[in-house]
Amino acid sequence: MDNGRRTKDETTLERLGSFLLLLHRDRAGRYAEIDALRGIAIVMMVIYHLVYDLALFGYYRENVSSGPWGAFARTTASLFILLVGVSMTLAYARAGDRANGWRVYQGYLVRGLKLIGWGMVITLVTWVYLGKLVIIFGILHLIGTATILAFPFLRLRWANLILGAAFIGLGIYLNQLPVSHPWLLLLGLRPRALFQFDYFPLLPWFGVALLGVFIGKYGYPGGTRRFSLSGLGERPAMRGLAWLGRRALAIYLLHQPFFFVMFALAGLVGTGR
């Protein structure tokens, strides 16, 4: 009975984790390379945030917001957001003939709202603990919003390449405009005095998601992989990265609190308290 109860409890936890987007089950039809790429993005993110926190607490003297580290951070975010677009195209293809209906869109809407909800949790936590450094529109806000807005674009193919590039170009232009108010912050119009260390406005980043949709439509036409991996997905390194990729949100939410606790403890030890 203990084994049966343990199995039932594990199943309940898996369902809860799946409902909260903290866990993606290893189901048939998932592509290991996409989960593995997401796992690579997670590893890159953890590395960057560790370096960022080292700089924040005074253990590292280099500028981590620009230069090589800034490029590393943008590459990491771009990989995450590209994979959002790819994943949406696969879900859309699996829906088949139902793909254009409201019932299918509900899935994207609910998922997007959950991600925005997690983003608002981060907004609340940073407002309480960081004050003026509150995260207003971070990467989770962006991914959730992009998940909701991208649905009409999932029927398109080459147009997403053009639109994605156009949105990126427009976003780069808007990001340079001087503004005195934050009311269009989510579009990329930010006052220079308003510092944001996790800021991903719709422009240009929604354009990156559309490029991901294009990659998904091209690389997985009809939801079927165009290329062969020749058993690469069974290799231990790939399986390990895929495991991380299926838990990307949980790792994203937990790694920074863990780092902050570790640095706080290190500070207490260093001061002899």
How does the helix and strand content classify structurally?
mainly alpha
Largest sheet, if any? none
What would the average pLDDT be, to the nearest integer?
89
Shape: globular
Number of helices: 9
Query: Would you report the number of β strands?
Result: 0
**What share of the residues does DSSP label as strand, in percent?**
under 5%
Helices and strands, in order, run as HHHHHHHHH
* Cα-atom radius of gyration: 20 Å
Protein described:
With 273 residues, this protein is mostly helical. It has a domain at 101-223. Helices cover 67% and strands 0% of the residues. It is built from 9 helices and no strands. Helix 2 crosses helix 8, helix 5 packs across helix 7 (202-219) and helix 6 packs antiparallel against helix 7 (202-219).
Chart the SSEs and their pairings.
Elements: H1 2-19, H2 32-56, H3 67-95, H4 102-130, H5 139-149, H6 158-175, H7 202-219, H8 236-245, H9 248-271
Helix pairs in contact: 2-3, 2-8, 2-9, 3-7, 4-5, 5-7, 6-7
For this entry, give a set of tags:
single chain, 273 residues, 9 helices, mainly alpha, globular
Brief overview:
The chain has about 270 residues and is mostly helical. It is built from 9 helices and no strands.
